[in-house]
Each structure stands twice: as structure tokens, then as C-alpha cells.
């Protein structure tokens, strides 16, 4: 009984950590620009695809990872520079369509540059399952969870301890005030895209040994990441993590105890219910309209 | 409001220009139309299908075409969407005036296109697995791949031989897996198989250990049967191993390509599945009539594209060969004649097996076309 | 009989009392001003009276009816209308249509007649347009009748809000800093508009910083600070109140 | 101003629709045109919600699919005639939209996007899973549309029906916008609280326009099902919902004719772009980005303002 529950929780934790990483990317860009970047999933895809293609071409894994991260960050910066910045003063919906266009474009690019096959990476530390109280866990899942934790700590440090990170936070609270304080909003925007691209790439790389990747892998991860970020409360990093874990664990428990066909539906029903009672997500700011 | 008119005219002009481009009527060509899911969730089926058609049509033309006529291939990407398939089928028939249609990568797109093809009276060879495509028989519709029902039958036959009677199913909740799942449930009783657990997953799920745990904890499961394609079955396979499940794991013909073994890695060892002779080309007996065909196709495909051949490429190859042979026999591209000749296809040796069609059977494959294979040391091994 | 009666009203935001135990009454046919330093809770008070916020405790009676649980649009139907300190203009619409939205309650609000463009709807709409144009003229916006709201200057938008509020034909009109951000001339013009409005029998409640204006047009004044009542009475009485002088006028001096 | 644009626009639309078939050499063109017009009707309805009332929905394909499946199931399994089946489906979808709309339309911005997306995905999952009723992911056949012994057959007939429907929809939409209700909707977009304090019951209007747009989607879904004769749950997928929104925004938010143009362009593009083959996705994504960067207000408003500028210069 308990072993069963534990196994479901492990399953949920693995998926949840993946969703959380995807959600964090949304949170960072939202914070800096109030833009929802629907191409976030494509960052994840590019990270995973680039790494596995380079490994397949004979590069050692660490080098492939480093190069893939750089490539993804360049894509992120290019996206910001050429698509988001020129439209900075447009409607939210307009920018959303731009990012959707970008995601279609990047998927198209990946399918032309690479291919349409599924690709994998060797697990970082073997494929021997770890047994815990009758339930099993793959070492790669621990990598995913571990990297997530590391990323959260690093982000916390960046936003609370470095000058630039603080400046970015300030921009999210009040763009005008930040501008008056001499913070370059453009630069903040660019760094936020680079950062979330980095996050996406790292996420894409650590999950590829588990979920594999192909040019369309970003669609589902992007969707789940968005759900995680909204459930947690937009712009809240911790919220995105909790949101991702809630979605992942809800799915696993639903397929274990209810119906695997309806597990995604269960996750969305939970999100809807949370939003009915907490219209700004779990940790979102309860803003009262100033009138 | 003039702008509206202007834009309307401009749009129509662009539209017309785009659709007429490249379809200039050449009198002496045989036009083969294809709508395939080259992008979208079934792209790794559609892509090799497209490549195969292109390669062989090219080769054919270099060799002088069919009876001195060039063959023109017109293909569109339906992205796996049935409504797009309908539109492209119409485009092929009405606008491109093709003589025959090959395609429909998925059962959904094929079924949708049938609504257009049947009334228009154009021979149509589908490359999708669903049995609904040819059962009941439709006058103009044929197909080359084995049906999902056959795959299930082959698997259950193998299980029966091994004395397995209680089976857990886990299937993908998208088209291929869902249809395969339904057919499996239908034929299981015939082979004395009892489905004691029945789980599903979505094509892009990162983890299915929850579903497998449920199966693991179901009493009396003697084997697990997974119906799906894409990366899902590889994840199932990995999770299966992770949970230390020891019963035999069967997969469907949907994963019969080297890529699957690459993705699933060591976890794939010992997996059994029904597959066409193509994946075990070299291991076929020397007297096997399929041997020369599949070895040649495999060699040509792999030389041309530097990637492992998949059964899906084979389906397209078979479709093309059957079509061309029928056109040759008919002596013209008269649609009714070609249709009749396709129906008379007999003893064609293809990558999928021996094809003998009849007015009652528009697929013409028998269960013997499937071979049971097992993964051993990272490769497919004939296990019959 | 009082038009508006506030009893023991309080509002907390995360432990901070924006309004605390406030009681007062407003009589019909008067111009009533609420004054207080920045952050005294004036706008919060407006938001409570118009049901944009829900009180933490206390009661608000409009026409002797408790407004608890009522929505702002229901209060509008009862005869209460307001303007905003932070403009709430419909910038996506022409100026006149902003005012026409104000007249919404007096038009056919059902969906089907609008959808089918019944002649009665068209006729009423045409009348409404004329009426709203006259209202714009009334507040001094005659030259903006055909303008888009997005093209109008700040001062004009303030009046546009007044016109919109008037289009609802309120008995109680709450104006939140109508003169804020305006120059002296514009202030005086607003002043005139408010007086004209009051003459038509509409009760006006005003939040305003412009002391000259407040003292000049008010029949009664309520001074608050930190959400609590400091003083209440005629302009002369309030001006003489030492607490008010200390907390508000003093701070400004 | 309004009046001339209204009547002139309607007349222009009707004229274009009447003349367009002159350029259609065969049934395939009619088929594409019908799909464009169907999408246009959905988008005109959706534009009332997104463009005018300022509320996003990423789940409208779900309502479209429910309409399609409602008609399909009622006509095939329960032998209901197509017209009542269509109306029953639309009523049911309207009721559903009302029930879910009441709570979710309290949400704002991205949270509303999330909630509507969730509704759409749940509908999609149900259609996929309840295979006994819906035929599952491989879809189900739908009988042709017939009314009093007369059967809608062929793309030409569908074209005229769709064209008529679009003109009617545009007329209704224009009516609504320029009416007390329409003003209230636009006011909701401008400032919810500003509308509320002058007597606009904003939450009811939001729900109402949500219901109306859902009913439009459902009706078109029913017609689509009868026309194509075969439907799969993927017509209700998240991508289709996004596609509808893109059509509305690309054409120009809060522009009824813009929605029509957006729908037509986005339906035609994939047909026109077949010649770029593997680069189709890149080109399509690039066009979307480019249009939104350079014409952030959408196509039609940009064109109109160009004309106005030129007119003023003259």
C-alpha cells in the first residue's frame, strides 16, 4: 500500500520537477516584462535536441551540454532582441501571438536543421533503479529534482544578493521607477530572456534521458510549464515550483487511483478549482485595483 | 472599405498563384498524389513515407518512367489533422487531377479522406493501420500496412503458445494506440486471453510508472502488452524495467524500428513484438520470398538517407509498387481500370509480406506476414 | 431624512486600518466635501460607499437601505454614481460613447433587441446620443463631442467622467478629486460645473484637495485623518477646528 | 461615420462573397473557401469576447468540437434531424459556457487564459476518452446535412450557405457593437469598475458574450461536422483554440471585418505555403511574428489608419 503510494509520488515528483523547471522560465520572463513567453517550451526542446545531436556527432557530453546551453541562450536573446523588444509597447495579446509565432518558427527551424526523429541522451549516472521502501526511482529523476533545487537556490541568490538581480526585481515591481533609478529596462528584458533560455536548456538536457526529445517536445512541456506558473501565481518562482509539483503529483495520483485516461483532466480541474478560490494562483499577489 | 476589396482581391490572387504553381498540365505524366503527416504527432511515420515516395519516383523517372510516361509525385503535409487531409485530398483530386492517391499516414486522416475519395472515384491506397479503413470494404480504398487487429492477434497467439492467459494492457490514448487497444479487447477472447488490467497514457507523458505500478499490483498478470508508437513505448519500457517487473513485455508493430531500441536502451532487452520482415531482413531464411525484396529496400533506403529503415517507409514502398504495377497492368491511368487491377493484385511480395487482394479483401495480407521478433543484444532477432 | 448614512464603518487591508469606526450622514440637496491629508482614507471611503470594496465592519445606508452585499451597478440603479481619482475612462471608445455608457441604465439592456437592431433600440439610442451630447455641453466639452476619448487632454477627461456619471441620472454623485491636476482656470470651471449640478437637485459628495474650491462650494465638510473623523460641520466650523488645522491645513502651511 | 462603414462594409463583404466564386476553378477552391468562412464566423463571434469585451479565451475550439460532436452523435446515434441536433447542441454548449463562464470570467488576464485553456483541454480529453460515444481519437463519421428532404451536398452549396451565414453573423455582430449592450461590452474592456459604477452589470455581460461566442463556435462546429463528414477530437485541441485567437488578433482586435480577414488569411496560408514544404512552419511562424511586430493593432486597423492618414494628407 505504502510502497504503491510512494511509487506514485516518485512518478509525480519526476514529472513535477520537469514541469517546475519549465514553469520557472515563464516566471522569470513574466517578472521582468509581464510577457508570457509561449516559446519557453521551445527553449527546452532546443536544449535537449542540441545536446543529443552533438553527442550523437561524437562530442563529449559536458562539452555538448555547454554548447547547447550557449546556443539556447543565443536563441533566447535573439528572440528578445528581434521580436519582443520592437513590440514592447504593444498589447499583451499581441506579444503573446508573437511568442506563439516564435514557437512555431523555432519548431520549424529545428525540424529543418535537425530532424523529426526522437532522440535521447545517456542517463548521467547510469540506469540502475534506486530502491526506497519498496518503490523505485531512477537516478536521473534525482538529477532532475536536484538540478531544480540548485536552480531555485541560484535564482534566489541572483535576485536577492546581486545588484543586477535586485534591479531586475525592481523592474518587475515598477518599471517606471526602475527606469528613473537608472536601471536599463532593455538590458533587464534581455537578461531575463537569456536566463529563462538557460533554464529551459538546462531543463531540456536533464529531462531528455527520461522523456526523450524531438522537435515537438516543447509543446507539451510549454503547456505544462505555463500551467505550473499560473497555478503557483504568475511571477512567483516558488509558486512555479510548487505549481509544477502539484500538477505532476496530481497526475500521478490520478492515474494511480482514479483513471489514467483522465489524469490530465484531473490536473486541470485542480487548477480551475484553485483559481476559483485564489484568482491569482497559490502564491500570487492579491492586488486590489487602485481606482 | 476599399481596402477590404483590395485585400480580398490580393488574397485571392496569391491563393490562386500559390495553388496553380507547379501543377501545369503535362499530357504524358502519371500523377500520383499523396497526403502525409510529415509534421505533427505522426511525423516520424509521415517523414520516412514521404522520403520513400520521393526517392522511388525519382529513380523511376531516371529509369524512363512507366511505359515511357514520367511519374509526377504531388504531396502535401496534413500535419495529422483529418480536416486538412480532406482539403488536400480534394486538392489532389480536383485541382491537381491525380490518377491515384497514396497516403493517409494515420487512420484518422485516411478515414476523413475516404469521404472525398469514394464519391470522386479515385483509387486510394492508405498507409495507416486501422482496420476500419478496409472493413467494411470500400470500392476505391486499399491499404498496405497490417491492421492493428492482426498485430493483436499475432501477439495473443504468441502468448497462447507460451501459456499466458492473463494480460495487462497499457496503451497510448491517441489514435494508433487507442484503435489497437480496442481491437485487442475485441480479439482477446478468441485466443483465450483475459485482459485483467487496462491502463492508458498520453503520447507525451514523461513518466508512466504510476500506470505500471497499478498493473504490477494487479493480481495474476502474466504479461504486459503495450500498444502505441513514438517515444511512449520507450518510456513504458524504461519504466517497466525501473519497477523491476519480471513478466514478459510485448509491444505492438508500431515500434518496429531501430530507433525504438536506441531510445529504450538496455531496457528493451527481451521485448517481443510482431513486425514485418523488413526489420529482420538479413535473418530471413534464404528461401523466404520476402528476403530479396526487403534486403534491397533496406539497403537502398539506408544508403540514401543515412538512417535506419522503418516499417512505415516500407508501407509507402509497397503502396507505390502496388499502384505502379496496377497502372502497368491496366495499360492506362483510367481510374476504374486501375482500381480493378489493384484489387486483382496477387502474389505481390512487399516489405510487409505477401499481398493478395480480392474484392472482399482490400489489404491482402495474412497473419503470416507478421513475424514475431525479440530484442536481443540491442537488435531485432527473429523469434518465430 | 438623510440620503446617505454611514455607521461605524471600518476597512482593514492586511491589518492596516484604512477606515476606522467612521460615522456620518449626508443630507439630500447639499454639496458635501470630504477632506483629509494624503492617505487619510478618502478614496477608500468612496470605494466602500460605492461597493467597489466590501467593509470590514459597519453599515452604509443609502436611502435608508443597507447596501451590504450590493454590487456597484445595483447602487447605480438605486441612484448613486461616481467619478475616479485615477481616471477610469473607456479609452477604447469615442468620448460621446463614454457618456452613453453612463446612460446604460435608462436604455434597453436586453441582449436580443440589441443583437437584432430593433427600431426601438435605434430610436432610443439616437435620443441617448443627443442627450449625452447635451450633457457634454453641460460640463463644457462641446468641442469634444466627436472626439475619441484617447485623444482628449487630462482636464477634459475629468469632465468626461462627470458627464458619464451624470448620464446615469444619479441622485447622489460622488466626485473623487475632480480638480486634481488641473490648472486654476480649469479648477474654476469644474467648480462651476459642480454648482450647476447641485442646482439640478443632485446631492454631491466631493473629495478634494483644493481648499479654496472646497470652502467655496461646500454646504458641509467632513474632515478625516488615518481613517477616523476629525471634524464635521460647515466650512467655517471645520476651518476653525484646531485638529483639522493641525492635521491637515497645518501640514500644508 | 459608423453607419456608412456598417452598410458599406456589409455590402462590400456580400459583393466579395458573391463574386469570389468566379475565381474558383474547381471544388477544392470552394472547400477551402468554406473552411475560411466557417473560421470567419467563429472568429467574428470570438472577437466580440476578445476584441470588444477584452476577455481572452484559449478554449473555444472545445466549444466548436462539442457542437460538432453534439450534431454527429445526435444525428447518427439518436436519429435526430440535423437542424434540431445543431440547435440542441448549441443550446447545450451555451448552457455549459454559462455554467463555467460564471466562475472563470471573474479571473483576469493570464489567469483567465489558463482557465479557458483548461476547459478546452478537458473537453478534448473527454471527447478522446469516451470512445463508445465519440469513436475515440480516430474519430467518427457524420451524416450529410439535410433539411426537409433537401440534402446539402457538394462544396458549392456549402459555400453559399457559409457565405450567407457569415454575412448574417457580421450583421449581427455589427448590430451588437453599436448598441447599448455593445457599448457596455466595450466599456468592460476599457474599465470594468468605470462601467460598473454607472450601472453596467459587468460580470453578466462578460458571461453573456462568452456564451454568445461559444454558441457561434458550436453552430459552426455542427456545420463543419456535416460538411466534412468525418470528425476527430483534434478539432477541439488546444492548437485550434490558439489558431482562432491568432486569427482574431492578426486581423485586428475589435474589428469585425478584421476578424473575417484574419480568418481568411490564416486558413489560406497553409494552402498557399505548401510549395515551401519543410519550411512551412518557419514561414508561417515568421509571418505571424512579423505581422504582429509591424502591425501590432492587426491587419485591418493598420490598413484603415493608413487610408485615413493618406486621406487627411490630401
TrEMBL record, chain A:
<feature type="transmembrane region" description="Helical">
    <location>
        <begin position="61"/>
        <end position="80"/>
    </location>
</feature>
<keyword id="KW-0029">Amino-acid transport</keyword>
<feature type="transmembrane region" description="Helical">
    <location>
        <begin position="188"/>
        <end position="210"/>
    </location>
</feature>
<dbReference type="GO" id="GO:0006865">
    <property type="term" value="P:amino acid transport"/>
</dbReference>
<feature type="transmembrane region" description="Helical">
    <location>
        <begin position="141"/>
        <end position="159"/>
    </location>
</feature>
<keyword id="KW-0472">Membrane</keyword>
<keyword id="KW-0812">Transmembrane</keyword>
<dbReference type="GO" id="GO:0022857">
    <property type="term" value="F:transmembrane transporter activity"/>
</dbReference>
<feature type="transmembrane region" description="Helical">
    <location>
        <begin position="230"/>
        <end position="253"/>
    </location>
</feature>
<comment type="similarity">
    <text>Belongs to the binding-protein-dependent transport system permease family. LivHM subfamily.</text>
</comment>
<dbReference type="GO" id="GO:0005886">
    <property type="term" value="C:plasma membrane"/>
</dbReference>
<feature type="transmembrane region" description="Helical">
    <location>
        <begin position="6"/>
        <end position="28"/>
    </location>
</feature>
Automatic annotation (TrEMBL), chain B:
<keyword id="KW-0029">Amino-acid transport</keyword>
<dbReference type="InterPro" id="IPR028082">
    <property type="entry name" value="Peripla_BP_I"/>
</dbReference>
<keyword id="KW-0813">Transport</keyword>
<keyword id="KW-0732">Signal</keyword>
<dbReference type="InterPro" id="IPR028081">
    <property type="entry name" value="Leu-bd"/>
</dbReference>
<protein>
    <submittedName>
        <fullName>ABC transporter substrate-binding protein</fullName>
    </submittedName>
</protein>
<dbReference type="GO" id="GO:0006865">
    <property type="term" value="P:amino acid transport"/>
</dbReference>
<dbReference type="InterPro" id="IPR051010">
    <property type="entry name" value="BCAA_transport"/>
</dbReference>
<comment type="similarity">
    <text>Belongs to the leucine-binding protein family.</text>
</comment>
<feature type="domain" description="Leucine-binding protein">
    <location>
        <begin position="29"/>
        <end position="378"/>
    </location>
</feature>
<feature type="signal peptide">
    <location>
        <begin position="1"/>
        <end position="26"/>
    </location>
</feature>
<dbReference type="Pfam" id="PF13458">
    <property type="entry name" value="Peripla_BP_6"/>
</dbReference>
From TrEMBL, chain C:
<dbReference type="InterPro" id="IPR027417">
    <property type="entry name" value="P-loop_NTPase"/>
</dbReference>
<keyword id="KW-0547">Nucleotide-binding</keyword>
<dbReference type="GO" id="GO:0005304">
    <property type="term" value="F:L-valine transmembrane transporter activity"/>
</dbReference>
<dbReference type="InterPro" id="IPR032823">
    <property type="entry name" value="BCA_ABC_TP_C"/>
</dbReference>
<dbReference type="GO" id="GO:0042941">
    <property type="term" value="P:D-alanine transmembrane transport"/>
</dbReference>
<dbReference type="GO" id="GO:0005524">
    <property type="term" value="F:ATP binding"/>
</dbReference>
<keyword id="KW-0067">ATP-binding</keyword>
<keyword id="KW-0813">Transport</keyword>
<dbReference type="GO" id="GO:1903805">
    <property type="term" value="P:L-valine import across plasma membrane"/>
</dbReference>
<dbReference type="InterPro" id="IPR003439">
    <property type="entry name" value="ABC_transporter-like_ATP-bd"/>
</dbReference>
<dbReference type="GO" id="GO:0015192">
    <property type="term" value="F:L-phenylalanine transmembrane transporter activity"/>
</dbReference>
<dbReference type="InterPro" id="IPR003593">
    <property type="entry name" value="AAA+_ATPase"/>
</dbReference>
Automatic annotation (TrEMBL), chain D:
<feature type="transmembrane region" description="Helical">
    <location>
        <begin position="281"/>
        <end position="304"/>
    </location>
</feature>
<feature type="transmembrane region" description="Helical">
    <location>
        <begin position="81"/>
        <end position="99"/>
    </location>
</feature>
<dbReference type="InterPro" id="IPR001851">
    <property type="entry name" value="ABC_transp_permease"/>
</dbReference>
<keyword id="KW-1003">Cell membrane</keyword>
<dbReference type="Pfam" id="PF02653">
    <property type="entry name" value="BPD_transp_2"/>
</dbReference>
<dbReference type="GO" id="GO:0015658">
    <property type="term" value="F:branched-chain amino acid transmembrane transporter activity"/>
</dbReference>
<dbReference type="InterPro" id="IPR043428">
    <property type="entry name" value="LivM-like"/>
</dbReference>
<feature type="transmembrane region" description="Helical">
    <location>
        <begin position="49"/>
        <end position="69"/>
    </location>
</feature>
<keyword id="KW-1133">Transmembrane helix</keyword>
<dbReference type="GO" id="GO:0005886">
    <property type="term" value="C:plasma membrane"/>
</dbReference>
<protein>
    <submittedName>
        <fullName>Branched-chain amino acid ABC transporter permease</fullName>
    </submittedName>
</protein>
<keyword id="KW-0472">Membrane</keyword>
Amino acid at each position: 500500500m505504502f510502497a504503491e503510494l510512494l511509487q506514485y509520488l516518485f512518478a509525480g515528483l519526476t514529472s513535477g520537477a520537469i514541469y517546475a523547471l519549465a514553469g520557472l522560465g515563464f516566471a522569470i520572463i513574466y517578472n521582468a516584462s509581464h510577457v508570457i513567453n509561449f516559446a519557453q517550451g521551445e527553449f527546452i526542446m532546443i536544449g535537449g535536441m542540441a545536446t543529443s545531436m552533438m553527442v550523437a556527432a561524437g562530442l563529449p557530453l559536458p562539452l555538448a551540454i555547454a554548447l547547447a546551453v550557449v546556443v539556447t541562450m543565443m536563441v533566447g536573446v535573439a528572440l528578445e532582441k528581434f521580436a519582443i523588444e520592437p513590440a514592447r509597447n504593444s498589447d499583451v495579446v499581441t506579444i503573446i501571438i508573437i511568442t506563439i509565432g516564435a514557437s512555431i518558427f523555432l519548431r520549424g527551424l529545428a525540424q529543418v536543421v535537425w530532424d523529426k526523429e526522437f532522440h535521447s541522451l545517456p542517463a548521467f549516472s547510469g540506469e540502475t533503479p534506486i530502491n526506497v521502501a519498496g518503490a523505485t526511482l531512477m537516478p536521473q529523476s534525482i538529477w532532475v529534482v536536484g538540478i531544480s533545487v540548485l536552480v531555485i537556490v541560484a535564482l534566489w541568490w541572483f535576485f536577492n544578493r546581486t545588484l543586477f538581480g535586485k534591479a531586475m526585481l525592481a523592474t518587475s515591481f515598477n518599471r517606471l521607477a526602475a527606469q528613473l533609478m537608472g536601471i536599463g529596462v532593455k538590458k533587464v528584458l534581455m537578461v531575463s530572456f537569456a536566463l529563462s533560455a538557460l533554464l529551459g536548456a538546462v531543463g531540456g538536457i536533464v529531462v531528455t534521458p527520461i522523456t526523450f526529445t524531438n522537435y515537438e517536445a516543447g509543446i507539451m512541456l510549454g503547456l505544462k510549464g505555463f500551467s505550473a506558473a499560473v497555478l503557483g501565481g504568475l511571477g512567483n518562482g516558488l509558486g512555479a515550483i510548487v505549481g509544477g509539483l502539484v500538477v505532476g503529483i496530481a497526475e500521478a495520483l490520478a492515474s494511480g487511483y482514479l483513471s489514467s485516461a483522465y489524469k490530465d483532466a484531473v490536473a486541470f480541474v485542480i487548477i480551475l478549482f484553485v483559481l476559483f478560490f485564489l484568482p491569482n494562483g497559490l502564491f500570487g499577489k492579491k492586488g486590489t485595483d487602485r481606482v | 472599405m476599399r481596402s477590404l476589396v483590395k485585400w480580398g482581391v490580393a488574397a485571392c490572387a496569391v491563393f490562386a498563384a500559390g495553388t496553380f504553381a507547379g501543377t501545369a498540365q503535362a499530357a504524358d505524366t502519371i500523377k500520383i498524389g499523396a497526403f502525409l503527416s510529415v509534421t505533427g504527432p505522426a511525423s516520424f511515420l509521415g517523414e520516412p513515407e514521404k522520403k520513400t515516395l520521393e526517392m522511388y519516383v525519382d529513380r523511376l523517372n531516371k529509369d524512363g518512367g512507366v511505359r515511357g510516361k514520367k511519374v509526377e509525385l504531388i504531396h502535401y503535409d496534413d500535419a495529422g489533422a483529418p480536416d486538412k487531409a480532406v482539403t488536400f485530398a480534394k486538392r489532389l483530386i480536383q485541382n491537381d487531377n491525380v490518377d491515384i492517391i497514396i497516403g493517409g499516414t494515420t487512420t484518422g486522416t485516411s478515414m476523413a479522406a475516404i469521404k472525398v475519395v469514394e464519391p470522386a472515384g479515385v483509387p486510394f491506397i492508405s498507409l495507416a493501420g486501422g482496420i476500419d479503413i478496409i472493413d467494411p470494404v470500400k470500392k476505391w480504398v486499399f491499404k498496405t500496412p497490417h491492421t492493428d487487429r492482426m498485430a493483436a492477434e499475432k501477439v495473443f497467439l504468441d502468448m497462447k503458445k507460451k501459456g499466458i492467459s492473463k494480460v495487462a494492457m497499457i496503451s497510448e490514448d491517441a489514435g494508433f494506440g487507442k484503435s489497437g487497444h480496442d481491437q485487442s479487447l475485441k480479439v482477446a477472447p478468441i485466443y483465450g486471453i483475459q485482459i485483467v488490467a487496462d491502463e492508458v497514457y498520453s503520447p507525451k507523458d514523461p513518466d508512466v510508472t504510476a500506470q505500471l505500478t497499478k498493473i504490477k499490483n494487479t493480481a495474476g498478470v502474466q504479461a504486459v502488452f503495450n500498444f502505441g508508437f513514438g517515444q511512449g513505448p520507450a518510456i513504458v519500457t524504461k519504466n517497466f524495467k525501473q519497477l523491476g517487473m519480471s513478466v514478459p513485455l510485448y509491444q505492438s508493430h508500431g515500434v518496429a524500428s531501430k530507433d525504438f531500441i536506441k531510445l529504450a536502451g538496455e531496457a528493451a532487452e527481451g521485448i517481443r513484438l510482431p513486425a514485418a520482415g523488413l526489420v529482420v531482413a538479413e535473418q530471413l531464411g534464404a528461401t523466404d520470398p520476402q528476403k530479396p525484396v526487403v534486403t534491397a529496400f533496406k539497403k537502398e533506403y539506408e544508403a540514401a538517407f543515412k538512417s535506419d529503415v522503418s516499417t512505415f517507409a516500407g508501407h509507402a514502398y509497397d503502396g507505390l509498387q502496388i499502384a505502379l504495377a496496377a497502372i502497368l497492368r491496366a495499360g492506362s491511368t483510367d481510374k476504374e481500370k486501375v482500381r480493378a487491377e489493384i484489387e486483382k493484385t496477387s502474389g505481390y511480395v512487399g516489405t510487409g509480406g505477401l499481398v493478395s487482394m480480392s474484392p472482399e479483401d482490400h489489404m491482402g495480407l495474412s497473419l503470416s506476414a507478421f513475424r514475431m521478433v525479440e530484442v536481443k543484444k540491442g537488435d531485432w532477432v527473429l523469434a518465430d | 431624512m438623510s440620503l446617505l448614512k454611514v455607521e461605524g464603518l471600518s476597512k482593514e487591508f492586511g491589518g492596516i486600518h484604512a477606515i476606522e469606526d467612521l460615522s456620518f450622514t449626508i443630507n439630500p440637496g447639499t454639496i458635501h466635501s470630504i477632506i483629509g491629508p494624503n492617505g487619510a482614507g478618502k478614496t477608500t471611503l468612496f470605494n466602500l460607499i460605492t461597493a467597489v470594496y466590501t467593509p470590514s465592519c459597519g453599515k452604509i445606508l443609502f436611502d435608508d437601505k443597507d447596501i451590504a452585499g450590493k454590487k456597484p451597478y445595483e447602487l447605480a440603479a438605486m441612484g448613486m454614481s461616481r467619478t475616479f481619482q485615477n481616471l477610469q475612462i473607456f479609452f477604447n471608445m469615442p468620448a460621446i460613447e463614454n457618456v452613453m455608457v453612463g446612460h446604460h441604465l435608462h436604455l434597453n439592456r436586453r441582449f436580443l433587441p440589441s443583437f437584432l437592431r430593433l427600431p426601438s433600440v435605434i430610436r432610443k439610442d439616437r435620443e441617448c446620443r443627443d442627450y449625452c451630447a447635451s450633457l457634454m455641453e453641460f460640463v463644457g466639452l462641446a468641442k469634444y463631442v466627436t472626439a475619441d476619448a484617447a485623444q482628449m487632454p487630462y482636464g477634459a477627461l475629468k469632465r468626461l467622467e462627470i458627464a458619464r456619471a451624470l448620464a446615469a441620472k444619479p441622485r447622489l454623485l460622488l466626485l473623487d478629486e475632480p480638480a486634481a491636476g488641473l490648472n486654476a482656470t480649469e479648477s474654476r470651471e469644474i467648480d462651476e460645473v459642480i454648482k450647476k449640478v447641485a442646482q439640478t437637485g443632485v446631492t454631491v459628495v466631493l473629495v478634494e484637495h483644493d481648499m479654496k474650491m472646497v470652502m467655496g462650494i461646500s454646504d458641509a465638510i467632513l474632515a478625516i485623518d488615518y481613517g477616523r473623523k476629525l471634524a464635521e460641520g460647515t466650512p467655517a466650523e471645520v476651518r476653525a477646528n484646531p485638529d483639522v488645522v493641525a492635521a491637515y491645513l497645518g501640514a500644508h502651511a | 461615420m459608423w453607419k456608412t462603414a456598417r452598410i458599406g462594409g456589409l455590402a462590400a463583404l456580400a459583393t466579395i462573397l458573391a463574386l469570389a466564386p468566379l475565381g474558383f476553378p474547381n471544388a477544392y477552391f470552394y472547400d477551402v473557401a468554406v473552411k475560411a468562412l466557417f473560421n470567419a464566423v467563429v472568429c467574428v463571434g470570438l472577437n466580440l469576447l476578445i476584441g470588444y469585451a477584452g476577455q481572452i479565451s484559449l478554449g473555444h475550439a472545445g466549444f466548436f468540437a462539442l457542437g460538432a460532436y453534439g450534431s454527429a452523435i445526435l444525428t447518427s446515434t439518436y436519429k435526430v434531424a440535423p437542424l434540431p441536433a445543431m440547435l440542441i447542441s448549441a443550446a447545450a454548449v451555451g448552457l455549459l459556457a454559462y455554467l463555467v463562464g460564471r466562475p472563470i470570467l471573474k479571473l483576469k488576464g493570464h489567469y483567465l487564459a489558463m482557465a479557458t485553456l483548461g476547459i478546452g483541454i478537458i473537453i478534448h480529453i473527454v471527447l478522446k476518452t469516451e470512445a463508445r460515444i465519440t469513436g475515440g481519437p480516430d474519430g467518427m463519421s457524420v451524416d450529410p446535412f439535410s433539411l426537409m428532404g433537401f440534402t446539402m451536398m457538394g462544396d458549392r452549396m456549402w459555400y453559399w450557405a457559409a457565405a450567407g451565414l457569415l454575412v448574417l453573423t457580421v450583421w449581427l455582430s455589427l448590430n451588437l457593437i453599436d448598441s447599448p449592450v455593445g457599448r457596455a461590452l466595450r466599456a468592460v474592456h476599457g474599465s470594468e469598475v468605470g462601467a460598473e459604477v454607472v450601472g453596467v452589470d459587468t460580470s453578466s455581460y462578460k458571461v453573456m458574450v462568452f456564451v454568445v461566442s461559444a454558441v457561434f463556435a458550436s453552430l459552426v462546429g455542427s456545420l463543419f461536422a456535416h460538411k466534412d463528414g468525418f470528425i476527430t477530437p483534434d478539432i477541439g485541441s488546444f492548437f485550434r483554440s490558439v489558431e482562432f485567437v491568432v486569427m482574431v488578433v492578426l486581423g485586428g482586435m475589435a474589428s469585425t471585418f478584421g476578424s473575417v480577414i484574419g480568418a481568411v488569411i490564416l486558413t489560406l496560408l497553409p494552402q498557399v505555403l505548401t510549395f515551401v514544404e519543410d519550411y512551412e512552419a518557419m514561414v508561417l511562424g515568421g509571418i505571424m511574428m512579423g505581422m504582429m511586430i509591424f502591425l501590432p493593432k492587426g491587419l485591418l486597423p493598420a490598413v484603415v489608419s493608413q487610408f485615413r492618414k493618406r486621406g487627411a494628407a490630401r
